[in-house]
Amino acid sequence: MLLLGERVQKEKKLNVVNPYNNQLVESLGQSDESDISNAIGIAETGFDILKNMPAGKRAHILRHTAFIMQEKREDFAKTIALESGKTINEARGETDRAINTMNLSALAAMKLTGETVRFDLGGASDKMGFYIRVPLGIVLAITPFNFPLNLSCHKIGPAIAAGNAIIHKPASKTPVSGVKLAEALIEAGLPKEGISVLIGSGSTIGMNLVKHAAIRKISFTGSLDVGNLITENCGMKRVTMELGSNSAVVVFKDAPLNFVAKKIRKGGYTLAGQVCISIQRVYVEEDIADEFLRELSLEVGKINYGDPLLEDTEMGPMIDESAIKKAEEFCGNALKHKGILILGGRREKNIFLPTIIFDVSEDSLVIQEEAFAPIVAVNKFKSVDEVIAKVNNTKYGLQAGVFTHDITKALKCAQGINAGGVLVNESPTYRVDNMPYGGTKGSGIGREGPDFAIKEMTEEKLIIFDQLP
Description:
single chain; 15 helices; about 20% strand; seven-stranded mixed beta sheet; six-stranded mixed beta sheet; globular
């Protein structure tokens, strides 16, 4: 826990453990209800400071934070790997993206403007006016375990760029990255009242913050169930919800199958499939289903899993025992729904093996729900209309991928698939940090990416001038 720029020691500790070997990573003070009131008071002071701080100075703080993160790149990466179970190379990649996100947030601070408004559209008028964008107040950032640094930057960077104060509630499994990010911001010149980090369970600390009247904006990344719970309890607050998915890939028979198999090897099994846009469903044209399944099996069978800190490890452990049990449940359910297990389907200690299931019923868990595991289901289709209907037949809609040389089929899928993003000849796990990112249906509300998030962390203030007689 961090208040006024200092780590706060508490009698009650939260032990952060390495999900690969269950060894202790760090112990942090665990927040209680009194800390919520304290953090709110600090944030109110911080907002008064930040809203009056020049945009150029806020941008400088964010750029300087990115510089500090670059200097401490290996420390941030090792922290991510130890607490989340990411491979060290995945963690380095996340750190690099987080640095970029902070620099993009600095640019967003410099670009944030309003517009003039016309008053003569219904007749002659002497009025002149414009609107400006002003910060909301206190932003609550609730972040998940799978990208503990970059997803924190996606919320905290734009909030500061806009002039808001932040209370950050990181995932209890991975809070150390969030604390170190806050320390980097304060080292870079952010007023110590500008950010607090509270550590504890979502059901207590998180929900009490969600309900607090002083919070003006909630930016949450996590599951659909928790997202629904937040929106039911938050009252009249602005919300951005980046929720779950079961991302689909469509493979037409003219696509280069080995190329697609390599994309799915990366997109379905990075971070052991614990990514909201991880590939979970693959729909392959019936004529090439067997050939494609052979290509995919060869690629996935090469994945080197094990100790995340080893340089050649491609896939590490699941985050905890409950995640492994859920993966086992999804596999068991798929087999009961006529699925054929091609690879994996079982655990080795804290690692769930890379798994492929073929020809499973469309009403199975692995098709309808979010597995958040290294499980890819491969099913067949015959026509464009059929596959669009299958891709859309879930409560989620974050991103989807389509592989084909046929521009007509690609456009029909791009227009017909109901998702926040449709990627043609690219995996749905592709994301750059400046693009508008978010979903439809149960996959969320609003968009991330600093240029887009900063608008959701501000509101328009209209100013009108008229002439006196």
